[in-house]
């Protein structure tokens, strides 16, 4: 019962009726064999027990399922044709060819990103995830594949000021609503450093941007490239301005943005680290980088 | 495609989503009907343990919001399956994907309501008929398939019509676990199109079309179901 | 993979969850109140003989009963902000709050169902009772207030009890538009601790308790109100039913 892993969930075009149900019900269930293969007897027993619930197939070729968020432009987003695109997605594709693996890139909500990896819904996270200590307790990260610049963008009407240190003045944030994405370093940072502000959490950066445009919140705190692509380029971009300096990854205790794998997957992690360095060396990285940014986001 | 549904080129995603909505709805309905019949039989069973099981199921599931159950099963269910499988040893991935999780949770939730509907229907079948069938020498199985089930279906139809309509709308909850059905697609394209009202209004019209057609079918089915029964 | 159920985590989350519970209860109560205010007059008008009166109300209830509450909520929360005119209007100070958007969406939704419940009950008031009142020379308003309403209330009580339970459970949708209700708080804690079971099972039990407390409470009220009717068949509500 060799079952092909179907196209990524986010990209799947709908077919009519129950047939669709059968196809979807059987997809994306495979063994991960980065180490020793399974004993046939156990395989049969397990297949018998659970084949009815979810299709199970042997891994004959190195197969990887990669998760990204799809709501974080320009890093990852859904295009009009329903496909996943962006820097992370191109990077993930290049990574796959370096690893010589058969890959599916799927969409996963940010909230469930780490639980989904642990639950083996996918093998790799390429979703602009910062390498934070609390995340490292749960999963392993590659070396950083880029450095994210963080910025605060406020509505001009909110009169939020820059402080003496060149960053936003916490006092001027008193009583202001700051939109951040749930389960991010931005959420933690904002709640900790600006206790007088009201931190509003969103499921995605896109939703927060919509509310910023709508005037529900006074400021957005996020990756600055995301803010530039989002609210600072929309119809009402003239209503908003950047406040103060850009924060580096260190301000959040992050080593940079990393690729996540389950704990203990040493071979996979080493292969990924090597692939990143290879991509830097052979120009693949620069090619992808230049498609999205006019500077080298890999950082020094 | 009507131009108002084009939505800067994203409109077709809503149509795709509506198809998935119907698929997950139909699949969940099948699960709900099966569970409903089994649940009703359990609740009416002469075994105390079965009765308890059926009653607990119907009682607990109806007391918890679908959203919470959906999130629990999606995030928790996979890990639970994983753990069960790991008892057999080995490294296994069982992906409770969004479609399967959505179908199971909706089927499970609405199976609890279907249990009550079928229970009512089974109770409404006159005892005399069952006694008469037994007197003819029918076995319990024959009584169930020839006397009880055909009539229970008819008696249950008004309730089941309502169940389908509610379930169809509840499929929108599967959007929170990432199933790209109608509500999810609308949520995804609200930002890139920058037309949230138009997007959600178009989505609501698609839902309305589905529920309106279902409602017409339901009315016909009810008329059919009651045609054999004389009003006394 | 499956760790032990972390009771300590549940315990330490209780204060946060309690604040969410308050929001959930507030939303439920205010939605019920809003729903009653809206649906009593509209429910009466829904039974009006003129199509010009009952027609628009039918259209409203048809739309709100034919589409998912989730979509209605998003239509109001994300949708209305699409229009500059709305953002510039005086209403915006209400619509800019996720909490108020929830209240509006939930109220419009429950009112649609309650209007049909009320209209259905009013239609089922026995004609003989109304004719008797008319014969006694009661005005139409007096008939409505003294005959139709009390009888209709008794008829609709079980269905309305069910509606209240439905609202209670539906408030969990508020978490999708930045409101920190019970579900919203749980999701924030889960995002921090990566412990879906502990939190979802805990809040599941809270909702379960609230659901059956509500059913029990309403049944007590019903039994008290109609104690003089004891012996007559009363609809038995064993648990929540479909709307």
In a few lines, what is going on in this structure?
Chain A is of the alpha/beta class.
User: Helices and strands of chain C, in N-to-C order?
Assistant: HHHHHHHHHH
Poorly predicted tracts of residues of chain A: 1-38, 50-59
Counting DSSP H or I runs of 4 or more residues, the number of helices of chain C is 10
The main sheet of chain A comes to: 5 strands, mixed
Q: What distance lies between the first and last C-alpha atoms of chain C, to the nearest angstrom?
A: 40 Å
Determine and state the CATH class of the largest domain in chain A: Alpha Beta
Architecture of chain C, according to CATH?
Answer: Orthogonal Bundle
Number of domains of chain C: 1
CATH-assigned homologous superfamily of chain C: MetI-like
CATH 2nd-level architecture of the largest domain in chain A: 3-Layer(aba) Sandwich
Count of extended strands of chain A = 13
Q: N-to-C SSE series of chain A?
A: HHEEEEHEHEHEEEHEHEHEEHH
Percent helix of chain C: over 70%
Overall morphology of chain C: flat
Topology:
The complex is a heterotrimer of chains A (300), B (232) and C (243).
Chain A: H1 17-26, H2 40-50, E1 63-68, E2 71-72, E3 76-78, E4 84-85, H3 87-99, E5 102-107, H4 113-118, E6 124-130, H5 133-136, E7 140-141, E8 150-155, E9 177-181, H6 185-193, E10 198-202, H7 205-214, E11 219-223, H8 224-229, E12 240-242, E13 257-261, H9 266-282, H10 284-292
Parallel strand pairs in A: 1-5, 1-6, 9-10, 9-11
Antiparallel strand pairs in A: 2-3, 3-4, 6-13, 7-13, 8-11, 8-12
Helix pairs in contact in A: 3-9, 3-10
Chain B: H1 11-43, H2 48-61, H3 66-86, H4 98-124, H5 127-135, H6 140-170, H7 182-193, H8 196-227
Helix pairs in contact in B: 1-2, 1-4, 1-7, 1-8, 2-4, 3-4, 4-6, 5-6, 6-8, 7-8
Chain C: H1 7-46, H2 51-66, H3 69-79, H4 84-88, H5 92-95, H6 98-123, H7 127-135, H8 140-170, H9 182-193, H10 196-225
């Amino acid at each position: 019962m060799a079952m092909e892993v179907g196209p990524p969930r986010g990209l799947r075009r709908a077919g009519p009726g129950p047939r669709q149900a059968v196809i979807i019900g059987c997809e994306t269930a495979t063994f991960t064999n980065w180490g020793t293969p399974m004993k046939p007897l156990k395989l049969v027993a397990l297949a018998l027990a659970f084949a009815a619930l979810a299709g199970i197939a042997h891994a004959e070729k190195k197969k990887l399922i990669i998760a990204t968020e799809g709501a974080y432009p320009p890093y990852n987003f859904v295009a009009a044709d329903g496909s996943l695109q962006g820097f992370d997605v191109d990077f993930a594709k290049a990574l796959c060819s370096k690893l010589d693996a058969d890959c599916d890139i799927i969409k996963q909500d940010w909230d469930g990103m780490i639980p989904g990896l642990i639950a083996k819904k996918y093998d790799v996270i390429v979703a602009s995830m910062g390498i934070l200590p609390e995340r490292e307790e749960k999963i392993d990260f590659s070396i950083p594949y880029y450095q994210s610049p963080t910025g605060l963008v406020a509505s001009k009407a909110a009169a939020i000021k820059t402080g003496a240190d060149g960053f936003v003045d916490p006092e001027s944030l008193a009583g202001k609503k700051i939109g951040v994405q749930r389960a991010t370093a931005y959420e933690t940072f904002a709640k900790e450093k600006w206790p007088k502000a009201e931190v509003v959490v969103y499921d995605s950066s896109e939703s927060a941007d919509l509310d910023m445009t709508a005037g529900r919140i006074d400021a957005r705190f996020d990756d600055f490239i995301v803010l530039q692509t989002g609210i600072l380029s929309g119809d009402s971009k003239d209503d908003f301005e950047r406040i103060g300096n850009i924060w580096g990854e260190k301000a959040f205790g992050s080593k940079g943005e990393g690729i996540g794998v389950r704990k203990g997957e040493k071979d996979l992690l080493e292969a990924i680290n090597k692939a990143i360095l290879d991509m830097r060396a052979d120009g693949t990285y620069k090619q992808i980088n230049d498609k999205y940014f006019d500077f080298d986001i890999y950082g020094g | 495609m009507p131009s108002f549904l084009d939505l800067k080129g994203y409109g077709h995603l809503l149509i795709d989503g509506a198809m998935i909505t119907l698929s997950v709805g139909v699949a969940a309905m099948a699960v709900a009907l099966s569970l409903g019949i089994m649940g009703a039989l359990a609740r009416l069973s002469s075994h105390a343990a079965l009765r308890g099981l059926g009653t607990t199921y119907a009682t607990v599931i109806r007391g918890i919001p679908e959203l919470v159950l959906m999130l629990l099963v999606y995030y928790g269910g996979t890990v639970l399956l994983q753990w069960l499988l790991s008892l057999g040893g080995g490294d296994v991935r069982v992906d409770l994907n969004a479609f399967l999780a959505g179908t199971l949770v909706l089927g499970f939730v609405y199976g609890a309501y279907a249990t009550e509907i079928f229970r009512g229907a089974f109770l409404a079948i006159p005892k005399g008929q069952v006694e008469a069938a037994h007197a003819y020498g029918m076995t319990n199985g024959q009584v169930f398939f020839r006397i009880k089930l055909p009539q229970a279906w008819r008696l249950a139809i008004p309730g089941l019509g309502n169940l389908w309509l509610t379930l169809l709308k509840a499929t929108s909850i599967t959007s929170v676990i990432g199933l790209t059905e109608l509500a999810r697609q609308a949520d995804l394209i609200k930002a890139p199109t920058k037309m949230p009202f138009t997007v959600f209004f178009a989505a609501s019209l698609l839902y309305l079309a589905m529920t309106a057609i279902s409602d017409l079918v339901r009315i016909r089915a009810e008329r059919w179901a009651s045609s054999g029964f004389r009003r006394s | 993979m499956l760790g032990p159920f972390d009771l300590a985590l549940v315990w330490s989350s209780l204060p946060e969850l309690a604040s969410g519970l308050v929001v959930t209860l507030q939303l439920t109560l205010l939605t019920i109140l809003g729903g009653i205010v809206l649906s009593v007059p509209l429910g009466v008008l829904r039974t009006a003989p003129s199509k010009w009166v009952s027609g628009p109300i039918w259209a409203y209830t048809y739309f709100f009963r034919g589409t998912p509450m989730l979509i209605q909520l998003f239509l109001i929360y994300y949708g209305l902000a699409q229009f500059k005119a709305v953002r510039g209007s005086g209403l915006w100070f209400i619509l800019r709050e996720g909490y108020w958007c929830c209240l509006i969406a939930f109220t419009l939704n429950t009112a649609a169902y309650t209007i049909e419940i009320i209209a259905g009950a009013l239609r089922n008031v026995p004609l003989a009772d109304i004719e008797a009142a008319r014969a006694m020379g009661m005005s139409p308003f007096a008939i409505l207030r003294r005959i139709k309403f009390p009888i209709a209330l008794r008829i609709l009580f079980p269905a309305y009890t069910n509606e209240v339970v439905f609202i209670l459970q539906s408030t969990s949708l508020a978490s999708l538009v930045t409101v920190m209700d019970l579900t919203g708080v749980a999701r924030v804690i889960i995002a921090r601790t990566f412990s879906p079971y502990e939190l979802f099972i805990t809040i599941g039990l809270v909702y379960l308790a609230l659901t059956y407390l509500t059913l029990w409470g309403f049944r007590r009220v019903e039994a008290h109100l109609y104690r003089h009717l004891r012996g007559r068949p009363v609809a038995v509500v064993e648990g929540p039913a479909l709307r």
